Amino acid sequence: MNASIQDTAADLVQVEHQDHATLVTLNRPQKMNALSASLVDALIAAVDDAHAHGSDLIVMRGAGRNFSAGFDFGGYEEQSEGDLLLRFVRIEQLLQKVATSPAVTLALAHGKNFGAGVDLFGACALRVAAPDATFRMPGLKFGLVLGTRRYAEIVGKQVARDVLTQTRTFGAEEAQLQGFVTELAGPADHDACIARALEAARALAAPVRAQLHQTLAPTTLDADLASLVRSAAEPGLKQRIRAYLGA
């Protein structure tokens, strides 16, 4: 299979275009692929690039020890609450772009994953986790509503209420029982997972698949964004983050 590799945004994201597929690798292993503003912008650009190439499949994966540690809090004290709000909005825009993609989207998770990284995993249609993968969504600890409705639609309201209220960590096997993980497979099996996903993606003609995805797309995108903005815009965001990080 011929491939061309394009590094985007100072190598924060590695984009590999293969025949009919685009592989997107979060490449901040020294920071556990935490979502900095630059990384989020690079991921949005990578998804747009995949769409421009007409990819049938978009794969999201992480370099190093895990898929993603979620929101990067580094230097948050030097940022205004408005700047932080904008960063959360950009993450929601990324999640919506992935969730409504005309391509089939596949996430490959391993290691410890948190917050917005779990939301990115959940925004993909196919969600493969290594047996060692764990997930935790602590956003409500600092009053943030991000990805909540999407997670609840996948696992059901009661399960979502239990997990999100306790902000507890859950493993890959539990995630599969929830339906949040669609398949358990370690890194050694990822190439086979990608091949199966691409075969499934190409089972329908691209225009037909795009129409199907549009029909199935969530109708709550504006409401999700509004809920996020309301939660993040509550006065004292930095104080809530400070309390969460100090807990």
Detail the topology: elements first, then pairings.
Elements: E1 4-8, E2 13-18, E3 21-26, H1 37-52, E4 57-62, H2 81-99, E5 104-109, E6 112-114, H3 115-123, E7 126-129, E8 134-136, H4 148-155, H5 157-166, E9 170-171, H6 172-178, E10 183-184, H7 190-201, H8 206-216, H9 221-233, H10 237-246
Parallel strand pairs: 3-4, 4-5, 5-7, 6-8, 7-10
Antiparallel strand pairs: 1-2, 2-3, 8-9
Helix pairs in contact: 1-2, 2-3, 2-9, 4-5
Task: Spell out the key features of this protein.
seven-stranded mixed beta sheet, 247 residues, 2-enoyl-CoA Hydratase, Chain A, domain 1, ClpP/crotonase-like_dom_sf, 17% strand, alpha/beta, globular, 10 helices, Enoyl-CoA hydratase/isomerase family protein
Gyration radius, to the nearest Å? 17 Å
What is the CATH superfamily label?
2-enoyl-CoA Hydratase, Chain A, domain 1
CATH architecture: Alpha-Beta Complex
**Helix segment count?**
10
| Count of distinct structural domains | 1
CATH class: Alpha Beta
Binned strand content: 15-25%
Percent in helix = 40-55%
CATH topology: 2-enoyl-CoA Hydratase, Chain A, domain 1
Strand order of the largest sheet: 1-2-3-4-5-7-10
Cα end-to-end separation: 49 Å
Protein name: Enoyl-CoA hydratase/isomerase family protein
GO molecular function: isomerase activity
GO biological process, one term: fatty acid beta-oxidation
Keywords: Isomerase
